[in-house]
Design a protein that fits this description.
344 residues, alpha/beta, QueA-like, Thrombin, subunit H, 2 domains, 9-stranded mixed beta sheet, 6-stranded antiparallel barrel, 6 helices, 18% helix, 28% strand
Length: 344
Amino acid sequence: MDILKKSDFYYDLPEELIAQDPLADRSSSRLLKLNKITGEIGHHSFKEVPQFLRPGDCLVLNNTKVIPARLIGHKEETGAAIEVLLLKRKDKDRWETLVKPGKKARPGAKIVFGDGMLRAEVLDVLEEGNRLIQFTYEGIFEEVLDKLGEMPLPPYITHKLQDKNRYQTVYAKYEGSAAAPTAGLHFTPELLREIEQMGVKPAYVTLHVGLGTFRPVKEENVLDHHMHSEFYQITKEAADTINETKRNGGRVICVGTTSCRTIESAADENGLLHPCSGNTEIFIYPGYRFKVLDGLITNFHLPESTLIMLVSALAGREHVLDAYKEAVEQKYRFFSFGDAMIIL
């Protein structure tokens, strides 16, 4: 097989097409339909999603909840401003974090947030320069975080988010993500109800999205890229729903690359799912054979990212890049708050 090069997944994106704010109505985004076999493209509204689904299909949704993981504080000793981003809970009050500027966060450094409502001490420097931090506070950590924390928006979004809930899916349930599973942001309760009433079954899985999802691929040879690890969980109910769909000849359509990575990580070699939880570092790129997934609803991804590689594994690199070129020409909105595509 030829070497897969990072540059094979590049496309040109004018900066003004990067969506900075969510639309007033979640489901009024545009929807590009891509046929994964022929590459045929159609233009629709997201509200039209039901017309591409059939009774007996299963829609897999990631019910993770984004925590307001961005904390702005200052060093107790010097008063210097410092930003802490919560990445992964190690135990009750100890977190793996990303601290900026890092040079001010040596082990022993103490940080104060919100007039002392929350305090932190740097315990250790971890791999990739992340910091292990111990928090102290009175009351319940989640409530303190809700008061002091901000949503950790991706680096390409420069506008301040007016409503925290807009970086949250309407079915978000289990806290733990540092980024939203953005393909799900387009769904409203009404649209989900309409889809269920058609005879399409939802299956809710959980994958806590880490900031590694935004980490660029640095190596030109794609296979040299080290994939980040994320925690996932599949319940018996979700596994049964997905397995039954496959058994009855229905299609399994994932909402978002996170749902896709979850079920593909958890499936055995026969494509069967079992209730389980664990960490996944699955890296899906062209040449990958999908074990469960038949279709995907997803947003538009960054050039040369692992996510555009995943989409290319499903629909073929040429088809995907043609669709992206068309989306640019038609002035679709890109990335987290942008428009969507459905690949079937």
